[in-house]
Amino acid sequence: MNQFFNTIFSILRSRVTKIWTKLRLWTSAKFIQTRLLVLLRKFFTQILDVRPRNKKDYYSVFHWLVSKRLAFAVVIILGVFCSFYLFSCLPQGFFGGGDSTIPTYRYDALPLKFYNGTVRILAKDGHLAYQGEVSKVQCNGEGTLYGIDGLKIYEGQFAKDMYNGSGTLYYPSERLRYVGQFVDNLFQGQGTIYRENGTMEYSGEFQNGMKNGTGTLYNAAASPIFTGTFQNDQILFQEFLGKSAAQAAEMYSGDLISYVSTSEYAVSMNEIGAVYAATDGSTQLNGEWTISEIYILSESFPTEDGAIDTINDLTDYFGSPDYFGSSYVTLPEAVTINLLAQKDPQSVVPVEMQTDSPFIDSVTVNSYDKNYEVYIYTYLKDGLLYTFYAPSSGQETFLLYSIALTQ
Fold first, then answer.
1. Are strands 104-106 and 301-303 parallel, antiparallel or unpaired?
2. Of 30, 115, 137, 239, which has the fewest Cβ atoms less than 10 A away?
3. Confidence of residue 269 (pLDDT cuts 50, 70, 90)
4. What pLDDT was estimated at residue 95?
5. 175-193 burial: b if 16+ Cβ within 10 Å, else e
6. How much is the average pLDDT of 291-315?
7. Mean pLDDT, residues 53-63
8. pLDDT tens for residues 354-398?
9. How far apart are CA 270 and CA 276, in angstroms?
10. CB–CB of 153/164 below 8 Å?
11. What angle do CA 322, 273, 226 make, to 5 degrees?
């Protein structure tokens, strides 16, 4: 009896094993993949078998006969490509898994060209380049521009794909660089510039991307040092002319040192690279000293059309010089030259000077080398006398310049 049951069990087990083996085979991923590939190969083989077998396999189009199988194959292929393209144009996250509130498109996606509203735009390499409002195929409205590292480049108002309106520009470290008004990507209107370490550099008016108009300049410690007018990123130094020393102190609040001799008076404004000369006010009713000339430690001269740094260009701008040749230094010139020599001792010979310093910000000049010669070019323009100090005769460059009242 046991032998009978063992025989029956063996037969059943062999049958069940065969069925189980087939089930495992049919449900395996490799079998399913193979079957699908076979079916797809057969399907496309039939589609691509465009050879007509009889007259019924043709479409008559005017004077031509077009294979029905070929037409069907073309339609199928075009349908596959169109489906793939439309699928690629859909916003990322369309089928779930993304932020459903803001659609995300690649920069070249066709639907993006017709979209109005808030979107995310991916750059060619896939990083998020822009998030904000778009309309008429451009960034228009509020938005944020991102770099490849994901840090902000700019956030604020856009118009026609450019910074227009109020916005904030960042350094590559995402520290503040500029906060204020823009026109076509340029600083325009009221704004504030920051250094990369976070300290304020300038706050005031801008035009064409440069400091133009009234503003305040700050030193590295973020303390205000000058408030006045700027032109093409440069201080309009002629504003000091005719002002009293007290008025000059309202404009310049940085470190200064006054130099006084028996008949001359000069004040160095080190943080803006300038020295002014003042005339004795003892004969005036108010007793105030008046600024008659200002010296600027700069090798370029700012104009409305850009900076000038050669004598030839100065002559083109001003006309022929009223004077050029050697001249003996005055006290303000000697102070300016010595400040320049401190910065560039290899190129500039200082003026010998005997001084006493009773206070940190006040120097009494007992004597200086009045036979020290400088080579100058002077020009008259709009009631002002401009003097440019060359290293020597025949040199095309200049080391500094001054602006003086003619009366």
1. unpaired
2. 30
3. very high
4. 40
5. ebbbbbbbbeeebbebbbb
6. 93
7. 63
8. 999 877 889 999 999 999 999 999 999 999 999 999 999 989 999
9. 11
10. no
11. 110
249: Cβ–Cβ under 8 A, 6 or more apart, which residues? Answer: none
Tokens representing 191? Answer: 């704004």
Q: Which residue in the block uniquely carries the two structure tokens 């032109």?
A: 231
Domain boundaries, the chain: 45-89, 104-237, 259-405
Angstrom CA distances, 367 to 98, 262, 349, stand at 80, 9, 17
- Backbone phi, psi, residue 289, to 5°: -80, 140
104-237 is classed in which CATH architecture? Single Sheet (2.20)
The pTM (predicted TM-score) of the whole model is 0.73
Here the contacts of 19-26 (C-beta below 8 Å, separation 24 or greater) are none
Give the residue from 142, 144, 149 showing the smallest Cα distance to 127: 149
CA angle 194, 198, 203 (to 5 degrees): 30
Cross-strand bridge partners of residue 214: 229
Provide the pLDDT for residue 123: 93
Tokens linked to 103: 């659609």
Q: How confident is the model at residue 30 (pLDDT cuts 50, 70, 90)?
A: confident
Q: Are 123 and 107 in contact (CB under 8 A)?
A: yes
Nearest to 324 by CA among 373, 375, 386, 371: 375
- Angstrom distance (rounded) from CA 320 to CA 314: 9
Backbone angles phi, psi at 136, to 5 degrees: 55, 40
From the CA atom positions of the chain, what is the Rg in Å?
A: 41
For residue range 64-80, list pLDDT tens digits in order: 666 666 666 677 677 76
| Calpha distance 291→195 (Å, rounded) | 32
Q: Which of 95-104, 150-159, 253-262 has the lowest mean pLDDT?
A: 95-104
Q: Are strands 256-260 and 265-269 parallel, antiparallel or unpaired?
A: antiparallel
pLDDT band with cut points at 50, 70 and 90 for residue 113? confident
DSSP H or E stretch at residue 229: strand 224-231
| Res 115 pLDDT > 50 | yes
Closest CA to 140 of 123, 106, 121, 117: 117
- Gap between the terminal Cα atoms of the chain: 140
Averaged pLDDT of the chain = 86
Buried b (16+ CB within 10 A) or exposed e, 145-163: bbbeeeeebbbbbbeeeeb
Q: Which residue has the tokens 């109020």?
A: 166
